[in-house]
Amino acid sequence: MLAPLFRPSPALLPRFPRMASVTATRTLATAAPTLLGGTAAPSIPGASSPPATLHLKTGQCFAGRSFGAPRTAFGETVFSTSITSYTESMTDPSYRGQILVFTTPLIGNYGVPLNPSDPLGRYSNDMVLESAGIQCAGVVVADVAERYSHYKAVESLHDWCARYGIPGITGVDTRAITRILRDQGTTLGKLAVGDAHAAPVAPEAYWDPSVENLIDQVSTKEPYELNPNGDVKIAVLDFGSKANILRALVARNAAVTVLPWNFDFNTVRDQFDGLFLSNGPGDPNHAMEAALNVRRTIQEWDRPVFGICMGHQIIGLAAGLEAYRMTFGNRGHNQPVLALASSGSITAGRVYVTSQNHQYALRLQEEFPQGWEPFFINCNDSSVEGVKSTASSGKRVWGVQFHPEAYGGPLDTIHMFSDFVAECKASKGAKVGHQPAQAMGTSQGAGETLGAAAA
Question: What pTM, to 2 d.p., does this model score?
């Protein structure tokens, strides 16, 4: 009934000539200067690009045209509902080994910015994305932009993927793919490019990245420092940290030391005012060594500990909770979570909209281990979105499954970083406290699992 109200006046129609096609519209965009200087149109994947097919292990196939690197890739096929920040998603280490399907139809329209890193490919103050390069195994889009336009862009999505050896496919029905993944869960896939793209794939040929320790692949190999003159010292256990986590800590004037995922923090903990556990890809059970180290830290140390995503799951394992593989996982910028407890800037009973990217979660149970309580719960699937130490435990430990620092937003919970840094500043100079092991008691079953892993 309202449609006539929005029908343009016939007198206005000549001012808006009909474009021949969406492609024609996008040719009006302008290319930014190239990496080598000057201006040039980006390479365009068109009808001459090799054919490609996305094969799912469950039998479905989707044929299209390739862009990026002309090579075949295997991985877990997952989808993200985020409508912006495709460059941040593709450089997020948590997407390691995954073929990323974007539900937003048009991807690549604002190109890719210059993204400097340090000489070893680690975080630098000039880095603008989430890591030095593309982390996902492949990209699936309905329509890749043939032209890009942004004042910071230096290359197209096609050229960027080609430079990093990452294949992409365009011209496929991402709505149908998303519905399949939504119904049957994350599915192993093959993005085949070239003459044999349509050839059937034997079930045993699919590669499952979850059986590998992806954390070890993306974590730093050596410790390094950022903002060494900051006024509070925070150690970061790197399970595959997004750059914006480090950026958020440095922005609050923290002196940050980034450590490998399996570094025993207990050997240096007296040098720091707080411990941060980063995000990361894959199965947290591959990082049981870190969970055992963190358990000891929590039992014997009295300073703040904060974990995000994988870091949250490691805290849960250390507490005695169980981590499990979700059927679907949560990926996107619009996941609602309900706060079950108040802490710092977080108010119990309020719903926060969050950014997430994970396949594993902590199992919700009737009774939490002694000294622990649920912090957040997902409003869609009731999965555990956060845990925290209780006030009676005498500890200051928080873990959240989502990303408060999300680049591309939302920023409902960004103040949790300020809360954590403020707690670290409050504890600065305090003597190390020794709590009895039973203060953060564990359930028998989970304790046996950790003990078995240690043996």
Answer: 0.85
